[in-house]
Specification:
heterodimer; A: about 75% helix; B: D-Maltodextrin-Binding Protein, domain 2; 6-stranded mixed beta sheet; 3-stranded antiparallel beta sheet; globular
Chain lengths: ~290, ~425
C-alpha cells in the first residue's frame, strides 16, 4: 500500500515535470522554425530568422566572428533590455531586503496592537491589481520628476515586491531566537559583529528566498515599468509584450526564451533554499 | 446688417489665420535652418505600435541611420503594445502639469480616435505639417489626407504612409477567379463554404474587423458618399439593423458557428495560415507580400479586393504639446516624406508593409521619380492589381461610427 502510494507520487512528479517542460520544448522548436503551420507535426523549415530579426545572430553570410562582434557592438535592443532588467532586478532586490530587515524583525519577534492590521496593509499591493494604483501613482511620479527615469522604475517595482520580501522574512524571524544575540553581546561583540556573526547566518537561507521572490517579481513587471518608465526604460517584458502582439510565433518564442532563461538559472541556483528541507521555509506558519 | 459685418470680419480674420497656418515654419522656429540647428545633437523619442518587427526594423535602419549621420539626432524608438498607451501617457502628463519641453514623448505614430482625443484636448504641438519642407509632396487637397476619420487634420499631424483594406486567399487552396468581389458575393461564398470564413471581432485591437463591418454599411446603403461628413445618427439607425441581419445570417456558416471570433490581425493570420479558414484580411498595398515574407502566412498566399467600398486611409506622426525635442521631431516627420524613403517603404525587400504617404505625382526630381517607378513596378505577385484597388478606394468616415459599430456589433451579433 505504502509503496503503491510512493509509485503514484513519483508518477505525479513525472507528470508535473512533463507539464512544466513541454511548453519549453515547444518554445525551442518554435524559435528555430519558419512557417510552422498545421498540419505539419514538426516544422518543415528550420530557420534562424527570428534570431536574426532580434539582432542576436548576424544575417547569413556575415556569421563570422567579426560579424557577431559587429552586431553585438551595435547594442541590439534585446541586449539593452536584458541589461536593464538585470540591473533593475538586482538593485530593487538589495534595497527591498535592506528595508524589510528591520520591519520583518519587529513583525516576527514582537506582539503589539494593530499588528494584524499593519500586516494586512503591507500585503495589500498583492491583492490590488497594479492598474488600480499605478495610474494614480503615475501622476504623482510625473509631478515628482521620476517619470521616464531608471530611479522611478526601481522605486515603483518596490511596491509589488515589498509584501513578498517582508512576509518571507517575517516568517524567518518568527522562528528566530534573539537570545543568541544577547549572548554574543555579553561576550563582548559589538552590534555590527553580532549582526554579521549571529543574525545574518541565521536568517541567510530565508533572505535568499526573499531575494528570489523580489527578483522574479521585478523581472516580470510590465505595466508598472511601462507607465512609470514612460517607455524610456526598456526592459525585457516590454519587448516580450510588444513582440507577442506581432503574431509571429517564432519571434515571440525566441524572445521568450531570452526572457525565461535568467529566471530559470536563478531558480536553479537557489532551489536548495526553496525546497522543504531548508530552514528558510519552516517558519512560515508562525507569523 | 450688423451680423453680416461681423460675419465678414470673422471670415477675413479666419482667412488671415489660415494664411498663417500655411506659413513656412512650425511654431517656435523662425526658419527650417533654425529647426535643424535646434535638433542637432538631440534625441528623438518615437512612440509607436511595436507589433510588427518589419516596421520596427525599417524605422531603425532607414530613419535611425540618416538621422544620426545627416542631422546628428539619436533615434529612440519606443515600442508600444497599443498607441493608446502613448495617448494615456500624454494625458497623465497633462494632469500632472508637465508643460514646456518637459514631457517624454516627441512623436506618436497615430491616426483616428487617438489623434482626435489629443487634438480635442489641445495636447498637440502645431500646426506644424505645412512647415515641413517635404510637405510639398503631400496631397493636402485630398480629403483622404486632410481628414483623419472624417476629422480635420489642421496641420496637427503629418502623414507617413497609407493602407487599404482588402483580402488574402491561399492560391494553393483557392483560385483567384472564384473569389467574391462584393459582400453580396461573399454571402454566397460563405453559404457554399461553411466553416471556412470568419472576421476579426470589431472592438479593442480589432480595428480591421470594424472596418470590415463598416464597409457593409456602404454596400447595403448603395455607396460611401452619403457617409462622408459629420456623424449622422439617423443614417446609421436606418442601415444598422440590416447590417446586423446580414451578419447574423452568416453566423451558422462561420468558423466555429460564430460562437467566437479572432480578436486581432495576429489571430486571424494564424487561423488562415493553419488552414482553419480560407480568407484573411490585409491592409498592405503589397497584399500578402509582407506576411509571406515574415512567414506568418503560407508563401502561396495572394491578395484580392472587392470591386467597391475598400476603405483606405493615411497614418500620421503627431507631436505632443510638451515634447522634449520638438525640433528633432520635426526633422523626423520631414525625413519620412523624402521621396526615396517613401519608395523604400513600398519596396517589398525592405519588409515594410504600408503604402505611400506622399502623392507620387508631385515628385519631380529624377532620383525620386526613378525610385518611385522602381518601387511601383516591384510590388510582387502577392499583390492585387493596383487598378482594382484604386477603383475600389473609399475614405474612412467620422470616428463616432467606430465606437457605435463596435458596441452595437457586440450587442446585436456576438451576444444576440
Amino acid at each position: 500500500m505504502n509503496s503503491n502510494l510512493k509509485k503514484i507520487n513519483i508518477y505525479a512528479i513525472y507528470l508535473g515535470a512533463i507539464i512544466l517542460i513541454l511548453p519549453l520544448i515547444a518554445f525551442f522548436i518554435n524559435a528555430f522554425s519558419f512557417r510552422w503551420f498545421y498540419p505539419q507535426v514538426i516544422p518543415k523549415e528550420l530557420s534562424l530568422q527570428a534570431w536574426v530579426r532580434l539582432k542576436l545572430i548576424p544575417k547569413s553570410g556575415q556569421r563570422s566572428f567579426e560579424g557577431f562582434i559587429d552586431l553585438w557592438a551595435s547594442n541590439p535592443a534585446v541586449i539593452k533590455a536584458l541589461i536593464n532588467s538585470l540591473t533593475i532586478g538586482f538593485l530593487v532586490t538589495v534595497v527591498s531586503i535592506i528595508i524589510a530587515l528591520p520591519a520583518a524583525r519587529v513583525l516576527g519577534l514582537l506582539n503589539f496592537r494593530f499588528k494584524k492590521l499593519i500586516i494586512f496593509i503591507m500585503v495589500s499591493p498583492t491583492i490590488l491589481p497594479p492598474i488600480a494604483f499605478v495610474l494614480g501613482l503615475n501622476i504623482n511620479f510625473i509631478s515628482l520628476g521620476f517619470s521616464g527615469s531608471f530611479l522611478g522604475v526601481c522605486l515603483v517595482h518596490l511596491v509589488p515586491i515589498m509584501p513578498y520580501v517582508v512576509l518571507t522574512m517575517t516568517g524567518i524571524f518568527a522562528n528566530y531566537n534573539p537570545d543568541f544575540e544577547h549572548q554574543a553581546r555579553t561576550l563582548g561583540a559589538n552590534k555590527t559583529k553580532t549582526f554579521f556573526l549571529i543574525t545574518l547566518p541565521a536568517i541567510a537561507p530565508g533572505m535568499v528566498v526573499a531575494a528570489l521572490f523580489a527578483f522574479l517579481v521585478s523581472w516580470s513587471q510590465y505595466l508598472l515599468t511601462f507607465l512609470i518608465g514612460a517607455g524610456k526604460v526598456m526592459t525585457l517584458p516590454l519587448l516580450v509584450f510588444s513582440t507577442a502582439s506581432s503574431g509571429n510565433p517564432a519571434l515571440t518564442a525566441a524572445i521568450s526564451i531570452i526572457f525565461i532563461f535568467p529566471a530559470i538559472l536563478i531558480l536553479f541556483f537557489t532551489s536548495k533554499f526553496v525546497s522543504g528541507e531548508s530552514g528558510a521555509t519552516s517558519g512560515f506558519g508562525k507569523i | 446688417m450688423k451680423f453680416k459685418i461681423k460675419f465678414i470680419t470673422l471670415a477675413i480674420i479666419s482667412l488671415f489665420f489660415s494664411k498663417l497656418v500655411s506659413a513656412e515654419t512650425a511654431p517656435g522656429f523662425g526658419s527650417w535652418d533654425d529647426v535643424l540647428k535646434a535638433a542637432d545633437g538631440g534625441q528623438v523619442n518615437v512612440y509607436m505600435w511595436g507589433g510588427s518587427d518589419a516596421i520596427n526594423g525599417f524605422v531603425d535602419d532607414f530613419y535611425g541611420v540618416p538621422l544620426k549621420e545627416k542631422y546628428n539626432i539619436t533615434l529612440n524608438r519606443v515600442p508600444l503594445a497599443g498607441t493608446v498607451d502613448a495617448v494615456n501617457q500624454v494625458l497623465s502628463e497633462k494632469e500632472a502639469g508637465v508643460t514646456g519641453d518637459n514631457g517624454n514623448i516627441d512623436l506618436i505614430w497615430i491616426n483616428g480616435e487617438n489623434f482626435w482625443t489629443l487634438k480635442q484636448a489641445q495636447l498637440l504641438y502645431g500646426p506644424f505639417a505645412a512647415g515641413l519642407p517635404n510637405s510639398k509632396f503631400v496631397a493636402w487637397d485630398n480629403p483622404a489626407v486632410n481628414l483623419d476619420f472624417g476629422r480635420p487634420v489642421d496641420g496637427m499631424e503629418s502623414p507617413w504612409s497609407s493602407a487599404q483594406f482588402h483580402f488574402m486567399y491561399d492560391s494553393a487552396r483557392n483560385n483567384y477567379d472564384d473569389m467574391p468581389r462584393s459582400y453580396a458575393e461573399l454571402s454566397d461564398w460563405i453559404a457554399a463554404n461553411p466553416g471556412r470564413f470568419t472576421y476579426i471581432r470589431p472592438g479593442k485591437g480589432g480595428f480591421v474587423g470594424t472596418r470590415f463591418v463598416k464597409q457593409i454599411f456602404f454596400e447595403l446603403s448603395g455607396g460611401q458618399e452619403q457617409w462622408v461628413g459629420p456623424f449622422n445618427q439617423e443614417l446609421y439607425d436606418k442601415w444598422a439593423p440590416k447590417v446586423w441581419e446580414l451578419l447574423n445570417s452568416w453566423e451558422k456558416n462561420l468558423w466555429r458557428s460564430g460562437e467566437t471570433y479572432p480578436k486581432d490581425n495576429a489571430e486571424m493570420h494564424s487561423l488562415f495560415a493553419n488552414g482553419e479558414v480560407d480568407l484573411d484580411f490585409t491592409q498592405s498595398p503589397r497584399g500578402a507580400g509582407p506576411t509571406n515574407t515574415a512567414g506568418t502566412t503560407p508563401p502561396t498566399s495572394r491578395a484580392f479586393a472587392f470591386y467597391d467600398n475598400m476603405i483606405g486611409d493615411f497614418n500620421y506622426w503627431a507631436i505632443p504639446y510638451n515634447a522634449p525635442n520638438k525640433a528633432a521631431a520635426l526633422v523626423y516627420a520631414n525625413l519620412v516624406l523624402e521621396p526615396e524613403l517613401q519608395a523604400a517603404q513600398v519596396q517589398p525587400a525592405n519588409g515594410f508593409c504600408c503604402g505611400w504617404g506622399i502623392s507620387t505625382a508631385k515628385v519631380t526630381d529624377a532620383a525620386g521619380k526613378a525610385a518611385i517607378n522602381d518601387a511601383q513596378n516591384n510590388l510582387g505577385d502577392a499583390a492585387e492589381d493596383q487598378n482594382i484597388l484604386a477603383k475600389a478606394l473609399v475614405s474612412d468616415i467620422a470616428a463616432e461610427y467606430q465606437d457605435l459599430i463596435e458596441a452595437d456589433w457586440e450587442a446585436n451579433v456576438l451576444l444576440k
